[in-house]
Amino acid sequence: MSLLSPFFLVGLALLAGPIIAHLIRRATKDRIEFSAIRFLKPSKPRLDRRSRVQHPLLLLLRCLIVAALALAFARPYWTQTTPPAATDIQPRIVIALLDRSASMQPAERWADATTRVEAIVDALEPSDLFSLIAFDARTEILLTGEHWQRALPAERPGIVSALLSDQSPTWSTTHLDNAIAIALESVRELNESIGGSASSELIIVSDLTASTRVAGLAGLDWPANTEVKFDTVTTAADPDQITLQWLGWGTDLGAGAPARVRLIGTAGASPRSVSLQLVDASNDTAWAPPVETIMPSSGIQLVSIPVSGDAPAALRITLADSPDSLGQSLNLVRHLDREIQFKIWSDAPSSDLSSPGFYLENAVTGWRDPATIADDPSQPEAPALHVITSPVSPAEISTINSRLEAGAFVILLANSPELAVQAATLAGESNWRATTASRSNPLLFGEIDFGHPLFASFADPRFSDFTRIRFASPTSLTLPNDTRTQVIARFDNGEPAVLETVVERGRLIVWATGWGPRETPWVLSTKFVPWLQAVAVRAAGGTIPIAVTELGDVSRLNLPAESTVTALRDPDTAIDQLTQPGIYQVVAPETRARLIALNVPASETNPEPLAWDTFEALGVPLGNTLAVAESVDVPTGDLPESAIVSESRQRAWRWFVLLAIALLLLEGLVALLINRRAAAVPVPATP
Amino acid sequence: MSTAAAPSADPLALLAVKDLSLRAKVVMEGVHSGLHRSPFSGFSSEFTEYRQYSPGDDLRYLDWRAYARSDRYYIKKYEDETNLRAIILLDVSRSMRFGSGPYPKIEYARTLAATLARFLHEQRDVVGTALFDEKVQDVVPPRWRPGHLNHIYATLSREPAGRETAIGSALSEVARLCRKRTLVLIVSDFLAPVDTWSTALGELTAARHDVRALQVLDPVELNLEFGRAAMWEDLESGEARYVDPTQARADYTTQINAHLAEVNGAFDNYGVLHHLTTTAQPLTDALVTFLQTRRSAARGTRPARKDSAA
């Protein structure tokens, strides 16, 4: 018998408790009244006779209880000295599951894994059925049982070696549960093919890090005679190994948003200095001086690396001493401030308080994203936002139209029939009718399409109150039936108030009213600036998408279907699938090119091993013989896996606990008998 | 004779009855079934028959006139009459409050005393009672009148407050109280040292009183099959000492047997008929044995000393 946790045998020291208790006799405090005490000689107190044990049977039982509990906690098991039952009578089904996730990237680890698979194949009997499955986030059957059967026994190792040589570790995560589920399907199919229920083994060749996904194992239906064995590939743990985990960009405090990074090391390691280097990813040159920090013994450190505003968009953070190791560099893409050309077409000076221009100039001041700049006619493709508050000349109409077609957003305030006609011209339509009617009462918004991007930000009932915004003299617009113009909002008399028309790549937004303070309090309301900024963001290309993510989580990038992806360092070669970490440029029609950064999944860089009892808790039928790796970092220390698996299969501790319970009951019975015997000698009840 | 089958045979069942008079009545029925004649002969009795003298008979009843006439020794036998004076002395000291079972010795002894009182009263004898511990506490002088028995019951039922036993002084007090010849029945455990009361007993017998003793002990007082290792405290003196009964049993048995032998010697020395009973013995049996012992002795055949061996 061996012990998995022999240090619990220290609990045997508790045996001293009952022994001392049985040696010590408490000085009795009982008093018995008697009628003829003068005939009694005083007895010597037994305290003088410490060497005599009181109730030895009771003591023995109590000692056995303590010993049984200590042994149960020590988790005993019996080593398997006899080989497994002969399975060569019936063909075995052996399925090797090879982990090719990102954590297997180290060359020596991958080589070790493939060697182990080859060793499994070499140990097979000719009658055995073998299947090879490679898995990461997805599972791929490399060799089916049927192919194995069809191949000549002498050729089989070569086939497997060829398959393995074609494989390489990916940068994806480890979904072991999916792989086992598919392997079990293969077991069932092979059982059906041989018309029986052969004993089957799933041998998992993996590094079994803590990030391995095993949750799906809980609901699996395990065929009979199926065992799961682990051939764990581990390299000697490096106590100084540190991996980087991306947390996101910090708050911009004026000098550029800092990069927030978590350093994950080995808990308990002595504190040491760590140097982080910010690198320009476009040319792999250091961008800023290294950032020094101390890695505490807790194994976790959060670092905020300052990134100046003039830093390049594509960056990389590396550990200065080992930049090429797995998980020790991070690819980043900065958010660069966007600019939008802004122009007001008005015949009134911007200092005129009665003119909308004054309020527009003040509204756009201080914007960071997008930041407004002066309109530059030489860059018609650049994002632009134009506001027309006064009638413009035909030449200007032409200019504005060209900007519209290039993608600009134009807001036209049709406070007169003339402007309404110009709006129709810009929209490419002709028969808009516009009149100015004198009204005794101002109009309100009667109907607003809050689903439209123009007013979507006010859809929440807290912000959708437009009743304080009145319009004193709006222009009455009538659109033809075949118009392409969409009415976004109407006045409460049903006439169009806000319209939008798509003009080529641009948008024309028409308000059937002016924005002067005499016409409407709109420019003074709290809704004005958010509304205007929403239009500017649309003009600038929409909200900023996520640019930094992990492999396997590319869907968060919302890449357009027809986009072209190229590596930052190799813009000429289009990439079909994003399978490797790096920085890429994405070009999609009608959008600006954007950079994205992909990193190794943080879970794959976590060197912590998977807790061994996880499989037991999930009901996995663990096998009792394993090809043991060099060392497995399990909670019980440096024990071989076979010991852990043997113990978990035998569960001898349960019998010791049962023994302790039985002894406890027996002890209670014996104590009761002893007490009754003592009580059999009468004592005075009512003297 | 056997009363084992009687419902009153079990002392536990009988002593569960609170009413002392009822207890006495129940026991009395058993005594009646076991005895057909009064064992007590009065001092002024009606002559019934002559019986030839045999050694050991009381010479007081030798008929000297018949001897003069016939040169034979004859004992005159008298039928008891109602003029017998009797007093029942009940020891109510703290030692009598000991009991290994549900009831202490005093309950057993009180029932015996009440039954004896009823027995004598039914014979129209004048009977009284006295309770004693360090001294005589309550005295009911011997009388015969309606309600006197209830008076005796009430006195016997009284819970004493005394502590130690002083049989000697009690006997001396009785000797002072009883000027006429009186049947003195002492019910006690007689655990007090013999030399403290033997002299007073001698004085009482010297005063021609007919003294008879009924010694009541708990069974465990004879064998010490009782208790556990603890501080044992004397009920009377309050003296405490650590006693482990398993260790002390053998010596205790020797000591108590020696004491009982000493008690027997004292009674024999003064011609006092006495009987030892334990609280485990049925009350009826105890009384009948006690009364029959007296009768056998009266016939001149000394009873076997099985009592002392009990």
What coarse outline of chain B follows from CA principal-axis ratios?
globular
Biggest beta-sheet profile of chain B: 6 strands, mixed
CATH architecture term of the largest domain in chain B: 3-Layer(aba) Sandwich
In terms of per-residue confidence, which ranges of chain A show pLDDT below 50 for 5 or more consecutive residues? Answer: 83-88, 625-637
Count of DSSP strands of chain B: 10
Q: How confident is the prediction overall: mean pLDDT of chain A?
A: 83
Low-confidence parts of chain B, pLDDT < 50 over ≥5 residues?
A: 1-8, 294-310
Give me the count of strands of chain A: 32
The CATH architecture of the largest domain in chain A is 3-Layer(aba) Sandwich
Q: Quote the beta fraction of chain A.
A: 15-25%
CATH fold group of the largest domain in chain A: Rossmann fold
User: What's the N-to-C terminus distance of chain A?
Assistant: 60 Å
SSE order of chain B, as H and E? HHEHEEHEEHHEHEHEEHEHH
**Major beta sheet of chain A, specifics?**
9 strands, mixed
Evaluate the radius of gyration of chain A. 40 Å
Number of continuous helical runs of chain A: 13
- Indicate the structural class of chain B: alpha/beta
Structural overview:
Chain A contains 13 helices and 32 strands. By secondary structure, chain A is α/β, with parallel strands linked by helices. Chain A has four domains: 2-80 and 652-680, no CATH class; 93-237 and 607-623, Rossmann fold (3-Layer(aba) Sandwich); 257-335, Immunoglobulin-like (Sandwich); 339-532, Rossmann fold (3-Layer(aba) Sandwich), CATH 3.40.50.880. Chain A has a nine-stranded mixed beta sheet, with helices on both faces. A five-stranded mixed beta sheet of chain A has the order 6-5-4-7-8, sandwiched between helices. In chain A, strands 11, 12, 13, 15 and 16 form a five-stranded antiparallel beta sheet that branches. In chain A, helix 1 packs antiparallel against helix 2 (56-73) and helix 2 runs antiparallel to helix 13. With 310 residues, chain B is an alpha/beta fold. Chain B folds into two domains: 7-40 and 82-309, von Willebrand factor, type A domain (Rossmann fold); 46-78, no CATH class. Chain B is 40% helix and 21% strand. Chain B has a six-stranded mixed beta sheet with strand order 5-4-3-6-7-10, with helices on both faces. In chain B, helix 6 (167-177) runs parallel beside helix 7 (198-206). The radius of gyration of chain B is 20 Å and the shape is globular. The two termini of chain B are 18 Å apart. Classes of the chains: A alpha/beta (687), B alpha/beta (310). At the A-B interface, strand 2 of A face strand 8, strand 9 and helix 9 of B.
